[in-house]
Amino acid sequence: MQFIKNIFILLIVCSASIASGQDLEFVMKTSKQKLGINERLRVDFEMNRDGDHFTPPDFSNFTVVGGPNQSVSNSWINGKRTYKKTYSYFLAPKKRGTFTISQASIVIEGNTYKTTPKKIQVTAAVDIPKDPNDPSYVASEGVHLVAEISNTNPYLNEAITVVYKLYISPTIGADHINEIDSPRYNDFWSQIINTQNEKVQNGKYNGEDYRFLVYKKAVLYPQKTGKLDIEPLSLDLALRVPTNRRDIFGGVVMSRVNRTISAGRKTINVKALPEAGKPLDFTGAVGTFDFDVQASKTALDATESLQLNISVEGTGNLKLFKLPKVTLPSSLEVYEPEHDEKVRTTLSGMKGSITDSYTIVPQYKGKYPIPSISFSYFDLKTKQYKRLSSEEILIDVLNGPASHSANAENNRDSAVNKQEVVSNTDHFAFIKTQTDFSTIKQSYFFKTNLFWSLLLLPLLAIPLAIVIRNKKADRDADVSGNKIRKANKLVKKYLGHAKKSLGQKEAFYIALEKALHNYLKAKLHIETSDMSKEKIIDLLKGKQVDEVVITDFISLIERCELARYTPIDIATMQEDFEKAGATISLIDKQAR
């Protein structure tokens, strides 16, 4: 019996040894090695044992449009266990050429394993087979992004609108929309119109029924003449596309597809404003305006103040021109004007008013005219220049000293009407000759304690002033440090705004996004224009920040970008706020 027991134990040990002797595999597999620039590449990293600290390649020549997706399979066949874990990425090539996908790494049982690099050839765009059963083809035919431009031949500084509409076939579902390339609108003054409350509508595209969403609106004022390009808007969409398969209940099986679409580059031709009839005082105002000059009072005393308001109201490029200056007599003291803008921007352009308010203080008594003031603009309705002029305003200073010119005139009058001086023998009668003065004890300030203190205090303050000045000079010269300190202050400021805005989705995520961006400015020394996700990841990796922390930080930025399209409750906002604080703290601790 003991012999049989020993045999059984020996068999178990041998089986375990065979199982543990199974070769460990960690490999990279690609869906194809040659593809067109308009196609997608799937990359799988497979392993037959579980591991930790998976680090993917940088995919520098590709855009990650999907993933990482993680799947695990665990099965027993004839008593033999089979395990497989896979990380999947979906990539879009950035340009043509032959590129190498570098190594991925993972730690399994304390050892680091790496995949073999693979070369991928990217060719020119290829014809995608028109297979109605291919989910990628169905997605390409059923999803469109269109940029509608109100006017392709505007005048300089004339408002045009760009409306981006996303058309999706009723049979396709959209789970996720990510803006991967935003137009910068070079050579335009631009204003993005809020589309948060836009709802999905039904409409037609190429004569077929579609659902569409107004994704973005922009108002543009061209600042140069000639042909100007409007850069394309590019979106990455996670879609659910119907297939020809059915489930056990007869329902259509949906396939998940990632697709990148673009509105395409648009060109407009900007006309110069006509030279014929252009007024000499024209400052670039284009639109339809009213002009008004008002004084808060026209009668006052010297050294009192009045307000002179010069305002333009109407529709046009209100923020892009200057109001005319006022010229006043030298006897009226004039302060620099306070500029006030009450302008809102809609799809039809800027509307509202701008005002320059001058504070005027008269110094002398008299009447002072404020001459007529003129304002010129180009009227888009009549295609002609127009001039508006104010009425002359008379300021009456009732009480106060006479001006120098008035005194000179009075002196001439008194010289003509001289009278004989009458002699008076009592000239000094008002002087008192009898007094009761008493002696006053004199006290001297010289050589007192207060005297010596006041004498030595400036001498002692000189070294302190030199030290303070040197420190200030060093601080002013530290441009990078000043930027970091300023960005850190902004991080605290916007995190505070985000905390106060909990429950207000748009305000909360705008403040949180600003806090994250300013933190990156301070920590990574980069500007907002350079903040691509790939660069952020590379810089954080270079500072030896953990992959999990980097992923959390990127997911927070993506959450801020997509918040307006996703219903989010206050509990999620609180979680994101706490996650932002914890992630920033971890990066501070880990970054080197």
From TrEMBL:
Record keywords, A-Z: Membrane, Signal, Transmembrane, Transmembrane helix
InterPro entries reported for this sequence: BatD (IPR025738)
Signal peptide: 1-21
Transmembrane segments: 450-468
Alphabetical list of Pfam families matching this protein: BatD
PANTHER family on file: BATD, PROTEIN BATD-RELATED
Name of this protein: Protein BatD
Annotated source species: Pseudotamlana haliotis
